[in-house]
Amino acid sequence: MRIRGRKAAGLAGLIAAGALAVAGCGGQGATNDSAGSSGGGGGGGGGGKDKVFVALSYSGNAWQDEAANLALAIARADPDVTVEKQIAGTDAQAQISQYQSMIAAGAKAIVSFPVSPTALNSTIRQGCQQGVKFFMYDATVTEPCAWNVSYITGAPKDRPDQPFFGAQTAQALVDLLHGQGNIFMSRGVPGNSVDETHYNSAMGIFKKHPGIHVLATYYGMWDGSTTQKETSKALAAHPNVDGIWAEAGEAGAIKALEAANHAKIPVTGENSNYFRQALKGGWNGVSSGSPPATAGIAMKLALKVLKDGDDSVPKNVELHLPWVPADQVKVCSGDAFTNGCNVFPAGKVPDEFVTEIFNQDLLPETSLTAAQSGHLAKGTSLQPLPSDLGEWTQPPSRRYVTRNACDDGWKPGMLPSGVKGCVQG
User: Fold this and answer.
1) From CA 92, how far away is CA 424, in angstroms rounded?
2) b/e map 388-404, b = 16+ CB within 10 Å
3) Do 248 and 289 contact (CB within 8 A), yes or no?
4) What is the pTM of this model?
5) What are the start-end ranges of the E strands in 57-195?
6) Judging by beta carbons within 10 Å of its beta carbon (0-12, 13-18, 19+), is residue 23 exposed, middle or buried?
7) Tally of CA atoms within 13 A in the half-sphere of 191 that contains its CB
8) Considering just the CA atoms, what is the radius of gyration of the chain in Å?
9) pLDDT tens digit sequence for 340-375
10) Distance of CA 287 to CAs 75, 245, 338, 354, Å?
11) What is the edge-to-edge ordering of all strands in the sheet holding 285-288?
């Protein structure tokens, strides 16, 4: 679903060397895609239009493609901006160069999936000092001048006091196994903050249950085929597994179990269409995790700040955690999530397609068309954000996870989920 790069360790020298350079966004694997908004224009502004960039660290999986398309669709519908997408790859220095080129090109806003929570901070700070607005989606950065728009500390809408994907899906798996069983843990990409938050909060739950035994932990790289391969290896060594806790790529875990003719054990994972179809077809578990809609929401927030100023939206936006247990999966009859449906019919979208592209509160313009093409559906126009965004403001207790700091009146401390957060005092 997502690929996030390595942390800042070992990159300090690279950052210092490149901090003031204005380099091209080339680098290994770097690409760009220029496109004007629906109001005309090319990818680089002109005619008084603001330049907006979608800056990816990685592309090539379903989640990243859908997320970028939703961000592009929102920007292309605004006649006051031009938008360009660029892909830096998973190297932090390449994304630093990417940002520097965007700043030098006159960017007004950069909506980005950051490769690291800390390695980009110096360049982001320089951009902010020149008036550039940085909006990070899904993955977050600790630089205070940037906006973070993410679900990683979020909670289900009906359970706002139960945050963190890792903790909530771990508890669901414990409950499904009645506190006893052997499990696999399918992680994401090693060394990044999101995977660590998911894993640490999950382990905080599993450690409370001595009857749960982790037989194998592996990195599925948030990719279905890699997860299938790694799960198959784990199954060969440990056929006595009773359940799987998975980050994105969970469709691959199901496919590995199916290929091995394994019993339908409980699996918790993210939001691929294949996984939700599997839950509907008799597998037990919970579908949760990151919505690609996050990127479209980040773009809408960025456009609002360009028009209404920095104080018009919160700096720390936290989205609700999707939560679909097996007994609540409902197949849609069309292209939208209506009447409580939450999965597309088999064959309508690819197996790895990530279903959570809709958000009626913050992104009512979205559609299957927008997620697949990067353009709003015909007859659709931009809709205003809610006047009060308080419901989507991150609670101060979770700030440490995304900012590595606490607000005034708060101090670092452990949260009940086993994650380091902020406590009052």
Assistant:
1) 34
2) ebeebebebbbbbbbbe
3) yes
4) 0.89
5) 81-87, 107-112, 133-137, 147-150, 181-187
6) middle
7) 15
8) 21
9) 999 999 999 999 999 999 999 999 999 999 999 999
10) 30, 11, 18, 11
11) 212-219, 181-187, 243-246, 267-269, 285-288, 323-325
